[in-house]
Specification:
The chain has 290 residues and is mainly alpha-helical. The chain is 52% helix and 6% strand. The protein has a 3-stranded antiparallel β-sheet. Strands 1-2 form a two-stranded antiparallel ribbon. Strand 4 and strand 5 form a beta hairpin. The two termini are 32 Å apart. The relative contact order is 0.10. The C terminus is likely disordered.
Length: 290
């Protein structure tokens, strides 16, 4: 079977038949179980997720009903006396959704990103950019966009979305290392509009603008970041971003597009992160390291 959570919830069996429940609470429960695949989710956790802090007196009985209905969706006519346990199994005062390797799109996405980061570390920027772009293509919309979410799902989604936002600047940094500033300029502009205080994205936008002959726009991007950081966080751009700004003012030749022979040289864009950036150190080549 295939379980998709990187966008709308979708479950298909091996024959292409949809087995996604339609009732909101069943979809919520299935999403929680899928994000904790092969691990027990307790009844107490399920109750907290579905009803948060005001569960009805019938909450536990309702959970048992939702589980029974999910089993019908997932196992169909396969279930019956004498048959092996289905995918949704009762374990230790809770339930476990058994998934095989590769059946959950989130697992495939995370595996692809890990491989791409290893490729980045090896300095193979073209291959890494391709791998990261392929990972991004697995997303079909906001994670579980059509599923009601409680505290446990919201927390899990936040972690995945944060990692997704880490991977995008890594791919864009690799594209810059390959001299593709023209190709990614529009994408960077849109991302910075959405994440205006994300220093990695702003640094990449500044460099792409600068290399495109738009020095004034690159400097303006820095000033907009500085103003937002001051207004929203009471901080200022990192020291390394300030140095990037200074280098642009002086027309530093080291910021010019790399030739093939220079593609491995350091751009010295960022060396630290601010509270506005997701996580992980940033190397001297401007790529996020995790």
């Amino acid at each position: 079977m295939e379980f998709r959570v990187l966008g709308p919830l979708n479950v298909c069996d091996d024959e292409g038949r949809h087995r996604t429940p339609t009732a909101p609470k069943q979809r919520q429960l299935l999403s929680l179980l899928a994000l904790n695949a092969n691990h027990v989710v307790s009844v107490a956790q399920i109750v907290e997720e579905i009803w948060e802090y005001r569960p009805p007196s019938s909450a536990v009985a309702a959970v048992h009903t939702y589980v029974m209905q999910l089993r019908r969706f997932l196992d169909g006519a396969r279930r019956g006396p004498g048959r092996t346990p289905g995918r949704l199994q009762t374990r230790d005062q809770g339930y476990l959704l058994k998934l095989n390797a590769g059946e959950l799109d989130l697992d495939r996405y995370e595996q692809q990103v890990r491989a791409a980061r290893a490729t980045l570390d090896a300095g193979e920027y073209a291959e890494a950019a391709e791998q990261l772009r392929a990972a991004e293509m697995m997303w079909t919309g906001p994670m579980l966009v059509d599923v009601p979410t409680g505290p446990l799902l919201r927390a899990a989604i936040e972690v995945v979305e944060r990692d997704r936002l880490d991977a995008v600047p890594q791919r864009l940094g690799a594209e810059l290392r390959l001299g593709r500033h023209h190709e990614i300029l529009g994408e960077l502009t849109a991302l910075v509009h959405q994440y205006g205080t994300h220093e990695d994205l702003v640094a990449h936008l500044m460099l792409a603008l600068y290399r495109s002959g738009r020095q004034a726009d690159a400097l303006m991007a820095y000033h907009r970041l500085r103003a937002r950081l001051r207004e929203e966080h009471g901080t200022k751009p990192s020291a390394r971003l300030q140095r990037l700004h200074t280098r642009m003012l002086s027309g530093d030749q080291g910021l010019e597009p790399p030739s093939n022979s220079r593609s491995r040289q350091s751009l010295n864009l960022l060396a630290e992160r601010t509270v506005s950036a997701p996580r992980g150190p940033v190397g001297d080549d401007g790529l996020v390291r995790v």
